Amino acid sequence: MYEPIRTKSVHTPADHADDFPHRSREEELDIQLAGHLAALLAVTDELDLGVAGDRIAEQVARLRGAPPARHAGRTDAPALTLHRRAHALAGRALVVAASRADTAVAILAAERMDAHAAAVDAATCPAAPSRLVGAL
């Protein structure tokens, strides 16, 4: 009633699957995390945040095994846009750092998220008080 399949299925493993190098999940996460941090470093350098940039560069160097190239060019993007971009990049780095259980990068990413969120809040609501009610 049915004609048999005469070609190999696309789901059949390749004959030479071991011909190319494979990376482990941890290696893939390291590469992804280093990429997110390098992008965050570029935005941080553009915002001229030297100390924060140095801390991010240390983590990129640890993950890649070599110091990162620092961002030399400047764009005409407003600071508010750069802070929003940096906040998003730090959030991505935080997700990957949590997934690979890298506490140092997770803490750094969370601190950068807080700093950029505060900068966005200060830029969009300049009349808002800088301290919470009841805070010491």
List the helices and strands and how they pair.
Elements: H1 25-46, H2 50-64, H3 79-99, H4 103-124
Helix pairs in contact: 1-2, 1-3, 2-4, 3-4
Can you offer a commentary on this structure?
This protein is mainly α. Helices cover 59% and strands 0% of the residues. It contains 4 helices and no strands. The chain has helices at 25-46, 50-64, 79-99, 103-124. Helix 1 packs antiparallel against helix 2, helix 2 (50-64) packs antiparallel against helix 4 and helix 3 (79-99) packs antiparallel against helix 4. It is elongated and about 80 Å long. The model has no long low-confidence stretch (mean pLDDT 86).
Radius of gyration from the alpha-carbon trace, in angstroms: 22 Å
String of helices and strands: HHHH
What is the overall silhouette?
elongated
State the separation between the terminal residues, measured CA to CA.
81 Å
**Low-confidence region ranges:** none
Into which percent range does the helicity of residues fall?
Answer: 55-70%
Label the structural class: mainly alpha
**What's the tally of helices?**
4
Question: Strand percentage, roughly?
Answer: under 5%
For the report, how would you describe the main beta sheet?
Answer: none
Q: Tally of extended strands? A: 0
Q: Look at the structure and give the mean pLDDT.
A: 86
Give keywords.
136 residues, mainly alpha, 4 helices, 59% helix
In a nutshell, what does this entry contain?
The protein is mainly α and 136 residues long. It has four helices and no strands.
